[in-house]
Structures are given as structure tokens and as C-alpha cells.
Specification:
The complex is a heterodimer of chains A (403) and B (245). Chain A is an alpha+beta fold. Helix content of chain A is 57%, strand content 17%. In chain A, a hairpin with a 2-residue loop joins strand 2 and strand 3 (115-124). Chain B has one domain: Rossmann fold, CATH 3.40.50. Chain B contains eight helices and ten strands. Chain B is globular and about 50 Å long. The complex binds adenosine-5'-diphosphate and magnesium ion.
Chain lengths: 403, 245
């Protein structure tokens, strides 16, 4: 009760000097707003990272033709990645549950009667299904026999099915790829647009890898090797071993550039985080600066206020205020200002975050966490910069103060 | 009720040692109206600060209602001031940003328990000093005399054992001063202990006892045979003023 009344004295001073209160509050407001934006973007980014990693496969690695660090599809110009490379990995790299090759062509022309569409073509082995945890919804997947006999069969994604077959049952039907006639044996489960590039995952067609390389594409190289490790923690070490192996096999000596790259969940996460990193760092600097400068301003205004209100402090002491009461009163001013700044800053931050969601492609997720962090920072700034003025006020000698 | 025994106060500033109070001893009974008089700089305010438990003497003992304040910690002194002492200052010391009512309530905030009927108490206190129609005015909307009466109401709200007034009319015109002196006399008549500090003999003689300070010592401690009547003076002033108009 007493505390409430003493705190009330602090609030009254804030209310009576609204402009002063605004100046005291500005830094916290901007700082917390920036923090809120950072956290909403951070949370959105992390959720996206999780989704992308989940899609990529948490225990998966891809050896992809073509250098450079980006994720995404293989480089079609690079013909140095071969089945022999894949075999070498199978034999020499321990701890890999699955190692499976993927031959590849982008925008392959598919025809069925008058219907036409373009889709990504993949030549695969049966293990592809397990390696991607992606099975058929209808019919059968690619089998060992298909690969062994170079069978003229294919498995299609749901988008291809829609384009070429509409509502018909495609199983057992034929379609043409590069004038090669293939029988549809299965339809993949739909996955939607979930790739790192955000493209339509279901717009694809799978062929036995032998059929793809010999009959359709007429190539000796492959686009990628998909690998599933037995233990995700070993991934960095395995990636390094694979890099070494491939450099040896391809005769590459750094600083010469690699003609392959290894994608892993870490690399995928890196790419996703990269987009929002610059903005987050900028905002972090803004937040730190605002909170610190704002805190210093707050402290100085309070110190000035203590000096100006010295007779008032003396009077309160004469009327029976204890040192603690004076301390409480001034700390209340400081904490109330930072809390008010926190509330307004959280609101502003949430507004800005929503605007960012509307205007850009950055992922933004509102949640209670920024508010909790805001409370913590408001408390921290209010205490850190409020204690000194409050102590100075409390230490004034009543007689000196009254003079 | 108030017992001072060999009170000394010495200020040391660097090399300079100022012995302001040099062994004062006197007593004040409950219900007395005492004026402490002396020229400027003789240590009246210094003594007042000690009487008000705002400051401790360098030596000596001061018992207020039996407690020796010299022994007390800062917290206990604050409580003592809150319970037992009502201050009236020359400069009023009102909070400018708030109303008369809120100013009068201020000591209750620091009391042990905030009384439920605080608002009515404040109104009653303001009524007693004749400001029932100024309850929600701010200090800058009041005359000096009215401001000092708000301060008196504030001093009285905790029902203190002693009312201490340091040059309470120093910033007031004659008429407002007389009003304040009349209130003190009324309070005394109601049985309250009042200690008035002044450099003005005429004002001092409103009390029933005068203690004269000189060079940090008591030069004189005498009863006033026939205290001046502030009420009467006020009436005179009023009639003169009426003639003037
Ligand atoms: N804090 C202090 N330090 C040094 N000297 C002081 C201090 N306070 C008062 N004095 C001195 O003590 C003397 C008495 O002051 P004061 O009690 O204010 O006198 P009065 O109220 O009778 O005019 C003065 O000479 C003044 O300069
Ligand atoms: Mg004085």
C-alpha cells in the first residue's frame, strides 16, 4: 500500500512533465521496437529453416555437379560427376546408409497425345524413394528390375499427372519424353512447392537411371548423388571426406575451384538465414544503440530532475519519507518510463513486422517472445540507468536539500 | 515533552570550524507556545532542524516524548518526523504541480498506514485554516498567505506532537502574516505545542514564552506577560484596509 503510494508520486511526476517523459522514453521505445522486429523475423526465419531442412532431409547430403556455394539444382554444363564417383563414395566413405545417384535434365518436354508439359526429369535407382522419404501414392515406384532392364517406365509427380492426364488414371498409360515412349507405373505423393528455390516439387518425372542416361538423355555423367548418413553429427566430417575424395578423383587442387558442391541441412539453413541476416544485424545495431543512448538520456534527465527537485526531496524527507521511499519514487519513474517505452515499442515493432510481411518476402512470425524479451530489457535499462539517479536522490541530506 | 541537554552543533568546512550552537539546554512542556528569537545567523534554523529531527547535534541529548533522537537511525528519524512533527517553512515548500488537497495529503503517504478517510482529513485540515473553497486549487492559483495556510494544514494532518515554524511569515505581507499568527494562536488555544522561530520581537511576543539566542547560547528565557493577540491585530488591519479602500 505504502509502496503503491510512493510509486504514485513517481507516476505523478511523469504525468506532470509529459514532454520530459517522452524524451526519457524514446530510446527504449525505438530499441524495443527494433528488438521486436528482429525477433519476429528471426522466428519466421527459423521456422522456414526447419521446414526447408525437414524437406531436404535432416540426415541427407547431396553431392551436386557444379561448384559454388549455393543450394539448388545441379549445373547442367558440368559433366564430370559420374556413376564411378558414386561407387567410390559407396565404397570409401563409412557411415552412409544410402548413396544413390540422380541423373538430371531440366524442363524436359513431356507429351501425351495433344497434351504437353515441361518437367524436371530425374533418372534414379529404387533407393531414391527411401533417400527422399518420398513414395508413390498410386502404382509402384522405380524397381531394381526397371534399372537392370533399362525399362521404358516412369513415375510422375502429381503436377505432371494433372497436366497430362487430368482426372484420368495414368497407371499403365503412355507418354513421350524426347520421342521415347514410357509407361507410367506410379504417381508420387504430392509435396507442394517446398524446394530451397521454392519451385513446384511435384512437377517432376522419375525414370530408371539406366533408361534416363542411355535411352533418353544419352549422357555418361550424373547430376547429383543423394546420401543419407547414419548419424547427422558425422555429417561435417563425412562432407570433408567426400570433398577430399572428389578432388582426388577429379584432379582438383585448391585454389582451383571445385566442380562439385556438397549440400547439407547446414548449408540449406545458411542460405535461408542469409536473406534476413543483413537486416537483422542492422536492426541489432539500432536496438543496442537506442537502448544504450536512450538509457544514458534517461539517466541524465533523471539526474537533472533530481537536481531541480532537490527542495522537493528535502520536503518529502521532512514530512517523513525514508531514503528508501525517495529511492523508490525515482526508480519508479525510470522503470515506468522504460515499461511504457516497452509497451509502445512492442506495438510499433509488431506493426513494422506486419508491414514487412506485407511488403517483402521475409518470413515474419509474431509471438509472445519479443514481449517477454522486451520486459526483460525494459527492466534492465530502467534499473541500470535509474539506480544512480535514485541513489543520488535518496542520499541527499534533508537539511541541505531544503536549503 | 521536549528536553534539550547541552546541545552543540559545529560545522567544519575544511579548516573553518563554525560553532553554531554551544550547549543549549531547555525544556518545552506539551501545550506550550514558545518563540525562539535571535538575530539572523545566530543558529535559530540550526536549532529548528535539530528540534525537527532533520539533523543531529554534534553533542548533547534531545529527548522528544522520552526518546533520545541522537541514538536513532535515519529510518527511525523519518518515522519520528512523520508522527510527531509538523513543519512550516518560510518558503512554504508546496508541490507546484498538484492541488492543495494533494499537498496536504502528502505526509500520510509516508505514514505507517494510509488512513481510509485521508481525503476527508485533508478537507477538514484545509477547512480549519479557512481554505474550504480552495481545496482543488494549485499553489500558483493561491496567494502567499493561502499557500502558507495550505502548508499549515499539511503540517497538522498527521496530528503531530509539535508544530515547528521557521520564520513562517517571512515571505508574507502584514495581513497574511497576521492571519498565520492567528491560526497559531488558535492551535495553541486548542492545546497544541507550537514552537515559532523568528528574528522579530513583535512576532515572538505572540507566544507565551520567548527564548532568545545569542552567539549560540541562550541569552534569555522568559515568559511573555501579555502575549499579543493576533486576532485583534487582524481585525485592526482589516478595518484600516477597509478605510483605505
Ligand atoms: N551546513 C553549514 N555549514 C556551515 N555553516 C553553516 C551551515 N549551516 C548553517 N551554517 C552557519 O550557521 C550559522 C547559523 O545559521 P542558521 O541556523 O541558518 O541561522 P539563523 O536561522 O538564525 O539565521 C550561520 O552562520 C551559518 O552560516
Ligand atoms: Mg534561519
Amino acid at each position: 500500500m505504502r509502496l503503491f503510494h510512493v510509486a504514485g508520486e513517481g507516476w505523478e511526476a511523469l504525468w506532470a512533465n509529459k514532454l520530459r517523459t517522452c524524451f526519457m522514453m524514446a530510446g527504449t521505445l525505438v530499441g524495443i521496437a527494433a528488438l521486436t522486429v528482429i525477433m519476429t523475423i528471426g522466428k519466421g526465419t527459423e521456422r522456414q529453416v526447419m521446414r526447408r531442412v525437414e524437406n531436404f532431409g535432416p540426415r541427407a547430403m547431396m553431392l551436386v555437379a557444379g561448384g559454388g556455394r549455393a543450394t539448388g539444382p545441379p549445373d547442367a554444363q558440368i559433366t564430370t560427376l559420374t556413376l564411378a564417383d558414386m561407387e567410390a563414395i559407396r565404397e570409401q566413405i563409412p557411415g552412409l546408409e544410402i548413396v544413390t545417384p540422380q541423373a538430371w535434365a531440366t524442363r524436359a518436354q513431356l507429351t501425351r497425345g495433344s497434351a504437353q508439359t515441361r518437367a524436371t526429369l530425374w533418372g534414379v535407382e529404387p533407393e531414391w524413394h527411401a533417400a527422399w522419404d518420398w513414395y508413390v501414392a498410386d502404382g509402384e515406384g522405380i524397381t531394381d528390375e526397371d534399372v537392370a532392364t533399362m525399362a521404358r517406365v516412369c513415375v510422375i509427380g502429381s503436377s505432371v499427372k494433372r497436366e497430362l492426364f487430368g482426372d484420368e488414371d495414368p497407371i499403365g498409360e503412355r507418354l513421350y519424353v524426347n520421342k521415347v515412349s514410357l509407361t507410367v507405373t506410379g504417381v508420387l505423393e504430392p509435396r507442394g512447392s517446398a524446394g530451397t528455390g521454392g519451385g513446384d516439387f511435384d512437377n517432376r518425372i522419375l525414370l530408371p537411371i539406366t533408361t534416363a542416361m542411355r535411352r533418353v538423355l544419352n549422357v555418361d555423367h550424373i547430376g547429383a548423388v543423394r546420401m543419407i548418413t547414419t548419424d547427422a553429427r558425422r555429417m561435417p566430417e563425412q562432407a570433408e571426406a567426400i570433398t577430399g575424395l572428389m578432388r582426388r578423383r577429379h584432379g582438383i587442387r585448391p585454389p582451383a575451384e571445385d566442380d562439385f558442391r556438397i549440400n547439407s541441412p547446414l548449408a540449406v539453413a545458411e542460405v535461408v538465414r542469409g536473406t534476413s541476416r543483413t537486416l537483422s544485424i542492422l536492426l541489432m545495431v539500432l536496438a543496442a544503440l537506442s537502448l544504450f543512448v536512450g538509457g544514458v538520456v534517461l539517466m541524465n534527465i533523471l539526474l537533472i530532475s533530481v537536481a531541480e527537485r532537490t527542495p522537493e526531496i528535502g520536503l518529502r524527507r521532512a514530512l517523513g519519507a525514508k531514503r528508501g521511499d525517495i529511492f523508490t519514487q525515482f526508480l519508479t519513474e525510470s522503470l515506468s518510463v522504460t515499461f511504457l517505452g516497452m509497451v509502445l515499442g512492442s506495438g510499433l515493432g509488431a506493426g513494422v513486422a506486419l508491414a514487412i510481411r506485407q511488403l517483402t518476402s521475409l518470413p515474419v512470425i509474431l509471438s509472445w517472445e519479443p514481449f517477454a524479451v522486451g520486459i526483460a530489457f525494459a527492466l534492465l535499462v530502467g534499473l541500470f540507468f535509474g539506480v544512480q539517479p535514485a541513489r543520488r536522490a535518496a542520499r541527499l541530506h534533508p537539511v541541505e536539500a531544503l536549503r | 515533552m521536549i528536553e534539550l541537554e547541552g546541545i552543540e552543533k559545529t560545522y567544519t568546512r575544511g579548516e573553518v570550524v563554525t560553532r553554531v550552537l554551544q550547549g543549549l539546554s531547555f525544556e518545552v512542556e506539551a501545550g506550550e507556545y514558545v518563540a525562539i528569537m535571535g538575530a539572523s545567523g545566530t543558529g535559530k534554523s540550526t536549532l529548528m532542524n535539530i528540534l525537527g529531527c532533520l539533523d543531529k547535534p554534534t553533542a548533547g541529548h534531545y529527548r522528544l516524548d522520552g526518546t533520545d533522537m541522537v541514538q536513532l537511525e535515519d529510518e527511525a528519524l523519518s518515522e519520528l518526523r512523520n508522527h510527531k512533527i509538523g513543519f512550516v517553512f518560510q518558503q512554504f515548500h508546496l508541490l507546484q504541480r498538484t492541488t492543495a488537497r494533494k499537498n496536504v495529503l502528502l505526509p500520510l503517504i509516508y505514514a505507517e498506514d494510509y488512513p481510509e478517510n485521508a481525503e476527508e482529513m485533508a478537507e477538514a485540515a484545509l477547512e480549519m485554516v479557512g481554505l474550504h473553497d480552495r481545496i482543488d486549487y494549485r499553489p500558483n492559483q493561491l496567494s502567499g498567505g493561502q499557500q502558507q495556510r495550505v502548508a499549515i494544514a499539511r503540517a497538522l494532518i498527521t496530528n503531530p506532537a509539535v508544530l515547528l515554524a521557521d520564520e513562517p511569515t517571512g515571505n508574507l505581507d502584514r495581513r497574511s502574516g497576521a492571519e498565520v499568527m492567528a491560526i497559531f494562536q488558535q492551535l495553541h488555544a486548542d492545546g497544541r505545542t507550537v514552537i515559532l522561530v523568528t528574528h522579530d520581537l513583535e512576532l515572538a511576543e505572540h507566544a507565551e514564552r520567548v527564548i532568545v539566542l545569542e552567539d549560540g547560547q541562550i541569552a534569555e528565557d522568559r515568559p511573555v506577560a501579555k502575549p499579543r493577540d493576533a486576532e485583534h491585530e487582524l481585525a485592526t488591519l482589516t478595518s484600516v484596509q477597509e478605510v483605505d479602500e
